[in-house]
């Protein structure tokens, strides 16, 4: 692990993070195909998402901050996999790191904290959809025991082109 982990704190997200989390996510909306959202959000529009991730339970939000400045460096979350009741023991996980904070192990730290928090929640599987190509995200998920299960071909259309999504699963 990089030595600068001591400079990063991970904690549950709260309403005080809303603007920073919205700004971070909007970077990925505007600049990448990592998310298939195409229109940036206002903090008010993003608030229901934040509130759907309480401090406990299977749907969590973990935020990494710079220990000195308090600046949000990234976040990881677990959300419902699908809305139907039989899916309740499955979650979809995701991680976003500030573009200038990559390659510091922040994604690893966030996922480790998230999966530690989920360990006692009675969950069966975690799923991750990774827009392709994204070798860094694939490596992160494989480090956490995710296995490739299949690809949805040309499932998203953004920036004038089609994107594949590779699906990975992890036993919890």
From TrEMBL:
Domain named N-acetyltransferase: which ranges? Answer: 8-172
Q: Which PROSITE patterns match?
A: GNAT
What InterPro entries does the entry give?
Acyl_CoA_acyltransferase (IPR016181), GNAT_dom (IPR000182)
CDD domains per UniProt: NAT_SF (cd04301)
Asked if Acyltransferase is a keyword of the record, the answer is: yes
Q: Does the keyword Acyltransferase apply?
A: yes
Sorted alphabetically, which keywords does the UniProt record give? Answer: Acyltransferase, Transferase
SUPFAM superfamilies xref list: Acyl-CoA N-acyltransferases (Nat)
Q: What is this protein called?
A: GNAT family N-acetyltransferase
Which species?
Streptomyces griseoincarnatus
